[in-house]
Design goal:
Blueprint: H1 2-25, H2 27-46, H3 54-79, H4 87-104, H5 109-133, H6 138-157, H7 167-174, H8 188-214, H9 222-244, H10 251-269, H11 271-281, H12 283-288, H13 293-319, H14 330-340, H15 352-371, H16 376-401
Helix pairs in contact: 2-15, 3-9, 3-10, 3-13, 3-14, 3-15, 4-5, 4-6, 4-13, 5-6, 5-13, 7-13, 8-9, 8-10, 10-11, 14-15, 14-16
Length: 402
Amino acid sequence: MSGTFSQDQEQEQSAKASLGHYLITHMREYGLLFALIAIMVFFQIVTDGTLMKPINITNLVLQNSYIIIMALGMLVVIVGGNIDLSVGSVMGFVGALAAVMIVKWHWSVEQTIVACLGCGILIGAAQGYWVAYWKIPSFIVTLAGMLVFRGASLWLLEGQSIGPFPRSFQSLSTGFIPDFFGVGRPNMTALAAGALIVAVVLYLGLAKRSRNRRYGITDEPMAFFTVRNAIIAGAIMFLVYSLSTFRGLPNVLITMGVLTIVYAFLTEQTTLGRRIYALGGNAKAAKLSGVPTERLTFLTFVNMGFLAALAGLIFAARLNTATPKAGFALELDVIAAVFIGGASMSGGVGTIMGAVVGAFIMGVMNNGMSIMGIGIDYQQIIKGLVLLAAVIFDVYNKQKQG
């Protein structure tokens, strides 16, 4: 009897030890989620509840949509072992091109969107070509691109702002999904969409666990999986419910949600995604294993150009005008969001959800500090310190594990 009791104690201690070990070795992922919650609670308190009001949550989504969209592409580029400093300038240039096409050349909105996205793809292809096939460091190529497309925006706009845009173009950013159930408030279409998103997130999580079990890969303990997904599901439903009591789901939120799910699937559950991680982890070993490293690097920049162009259209639609300074220094916010989200500068490490959470951390901080009336000078200092702290924490964890 005592032997059985002793075995039970040993199993319980072993389970606790394994849970503790898993938490320590994965502190970066869980710490990020709890950091976002803590930051939101803090600003909710110091802003007297303003942060979580439906109107402010809607503004938070609209203000950070283009950052999140570009962060998805930047994560893929950084995981592949490169970086893109030109995204802010490309975003501004595409917005300027859209303004010229619609306002001056009188192109239709549909023609403009297709042409601008095509332009972004060509820009990404041009930069990716030099990085992938000529082995020129991505830092140099995209730094040149940042200067070129900043100057191109000034040239295209002739130093002046151009606008306004037709309402159909503005709806890219400021439009809302109507309530197809006709209830009004709360918007039942928004709630149904939220429930669908939660179901997809849970399905992807369970599918990943099943695949890991099938291949004998160590997965997170069920307790951690349950708690983490309960927090994510609760956050999604709270966000959606808040939006449903105001104007419903913004069009751009649907765009972000779809892109996030697609890129999470591609990076985590496809051969292409695994090859990109292998490329960033060790390019020489990946090439010897038969991975087409040059083509993959090229495609990561093509993808980044496409997403930067999409962000440029959304940014211009939100402002209802194209300005010469559009996108100025936004590449820093995008890169910071990715690194805060857990990506490694050396490549091969990072997740799509981490990048999204990192972007929301930056967005909540910007929004909360603005509500508090903190000046832009102090905001920049605080954001810089947060980025430095995130990188130091990442390096510390790696050294501790090593």
